């Protein structure tokens, strides 16, 4: 009798002998959103499944900085069922290649923490060369001239309708201009310090019609030499 029971146990499939357990799986743990303009938001829903034999219980969802995550489905997913989690990334303060990770914690005994990855390229619609201006030391009554090139790196035409300086001693020669995708324009920036000018620090503010970048700043610095 004992031999028969042992033989039966050997012949039984492994999944019959194992205790019921949940298993979190996903066909798409990585989502590449391609290219977005700085300021745009990326919204994506990751779908996962409970491929196990017991209910899958989601404990919590956590995301890396500047990416919010929220569970769209119920916290308890039955065996064979599916769930989803939403990721929202705000690209306002980012540029270049980015990688944002979502962490899903559950009662899966083999993988209590599962990662979902959101990645892509954030393009700044307007690019300044040089990115910052340093006039160095300029004497009172003298003049220093530098050039800044603005390039439209977005795929659409960009209207520059105003350019201003936050420092009265720093002047900008400009006119309203429409920049096609990939086009550029040169700006002449002059530092003309007076006796009352404390320094040449400030910003050149470029205003555009692009809602994702209505105002673009070029930092300016410099010292004033006095007689």
Q: Could you walk me through the main structural features you see in this protein, from its secondary elements to its overall organization?
A:
The protein has 227 residues and is mainly beta. The chain folds into two domains: 19-123, Immunoglobulin-like; 126-225, Immunoglobulin-like (Sandwich), CATH 2.60.40.10. Helices cover 6% and strands 56% of the residues. It contains two helices and 18 strands. It is elongated, with a radius of gyration of 29 Å. 24% of the residues are buried. Residues 5-9 have low confidence and may be disordered.
Structural class: mainly beta
Q: What gross morphology would you assign?
A: elongated
How would a textbook summarize the main sheet? 5 strands, mixed
- Tell me the CATH superfamily of the largest domain: Immunoglobulins
Attribute tags:
five-stranded mixed beta sheet, Immunoglobulin-like, 227 residues
List the helices and strands and how they pair.
Elements: H1 2-11, H2 14-17, E1 24-25, E2 30-37, E3 41-50, E4 56-63, E5 67-71, E6 76-77, E7 82-90, E8 96-106, E9 113-123, E10 126-129, E11 133-139, E12 144-152, E13 158-165, E14 170-173, E15 177-179, E16 184-191, E17 202-208, E18 215-225
């Amino acid at each position: 009798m004992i031999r028969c029971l042992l033989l039966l146990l050997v012949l039984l499939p492994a999944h019959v002998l194992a205790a019921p357990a949940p298993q979190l799986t996903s066909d798409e743990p990585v989502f590449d959103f391609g290219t977005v303009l700085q300021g745009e938001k990326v919204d994506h829903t990751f779908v996962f499944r409970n491929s196990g034999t017991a209910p899958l219980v989601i404990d919590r969802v956590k995301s890396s900085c500047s990416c919010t995550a929220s569970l769209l489905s119920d916290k308890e997913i039955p065996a064979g069922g599916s769930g989803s989690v939403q990721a929202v990334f705000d690209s306002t303060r980012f540029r270049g290649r980015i990688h944002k990770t979502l962490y899903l914690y559950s009662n899966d005994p083999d993988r209590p923490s599962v990662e979902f990855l959101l990645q892509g390229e954030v393009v700044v619609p307007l690019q300044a060369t040089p990115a910052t201006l340093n006039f160095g030391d300029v004497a009172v009554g003298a003049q220093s001239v530098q050039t800044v090139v603005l390039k439209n790196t977005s795929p659409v035409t960009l209207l520059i309708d105003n350019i201003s300086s936050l420092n009265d001693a720093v002047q900008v020669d400009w006119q309203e201009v429409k920049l096609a995708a990939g086009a550029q324009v040169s700006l002449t920036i002059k530092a003309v310090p007076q006796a009352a000018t404390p320094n040449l620090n400030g910003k050149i503010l470029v205003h555009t019609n692009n809602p994702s970048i209505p105002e673009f700043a070029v930092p300016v610095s410099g010292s004033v030499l006095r007689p």
